[in-house]
Amino acid sequence: MSKYNIFYCAIVINFALFSRCCTKTTNAVEPKPLPTPVIITKTDTVMLNGKIQPSARMGMGVNTSNSLTNWIKEDSSYQEFDYPGNLSWGAVFITAGGDPVSPPESDIDMSELSQLSIEMKGAKGGEGVLIGIKDITDPNAGTETRIPVVLTKDWSTYLFKLTDFAPTNLSQIYVVTEFVFPDISNQAETIYVNNIILLK
Prior knowledge:
The protein has one helix at 3-22, and strands at residues 38-39, 44-48, 51-52, 58-64, 72-74, 79-83, 90-96, 108-109, 115-122, 128-135, 146-150, 156-161, 173-181, 189-199. It contains 1 helix and 14 strands, in the order αββββββββββββββ. A hairpin with a 4-residue loop joins strand 5 (72-74) and strand 6. It has one domain (38-199): Sandwich (Jelly Rolls), CATH 2.60.120. It is 10% helix and 40% strand.
């Protein structure tokens, strides 16, 4: 064997040993699958006397365009939302699976239900709020369908057909109820929410 062949073989062997020593093997991590949606097939109470029901397996969050989160409070029999006004937006939202997380990790199937029932009132009467729901694919961009409501100063029950929130996918709901401020006037306002029920 010539000295050139010997030199070539030495280079090949050294390269193979270097590659074997320095190549790091990584195990691919499978993405965590979302849990199977809980299917609700009968009337289900989400909030009773201002309290999220443990059986509903839901949580509540609050935010505004400048990250204010201190404007809701729980009374003995209702939730009080004191929207501060003069902001781009504010929202209170009830989410499937517990307190809100991003990205969403849970959803529920509400396709066999028909209506969302909310008992609420305004502090003075005339307060405006937008009611919405969101599926697990909806972005946090305010593009979901919302239904405007003007409240009175007396407790009233407001019924919303779930199909009116189209094109929301009712079989994969993440935000079960949302209260979005401001109304057109963008003024500070206080509203009260007592009961929220999903109706068959």
